Amino acid sequence: MATPESELPTWSEAQQHAVTHASAAATERDPATREHHLQLAQVWATIALSRATFEQAQKFAHSVDDLTGTINDIPSRLPR
Known about the structure:
Residues 1-34 are annotated as: Disordered. By secondary structure, this protein is mainly alpha-helical. 76% of the residues lie in helices and 0% in strands.
């Protein structure tokens, strides 16, 4: 059974969820919780890209690149 179009998130809503979870992952100290947020960010990013126009997809890809750099920098910011 398919979900009605009216119940699907818009590109903007899905993008916001992806950014919210990626940002939460970037500040999370607990590895399991960080991984959970990263997985949710990936799911929402996939949904956003599936709902996006070409221009929106390009803009979102640049945002993801920026967030990826931040997330990859997490280990260097954690106290040892």
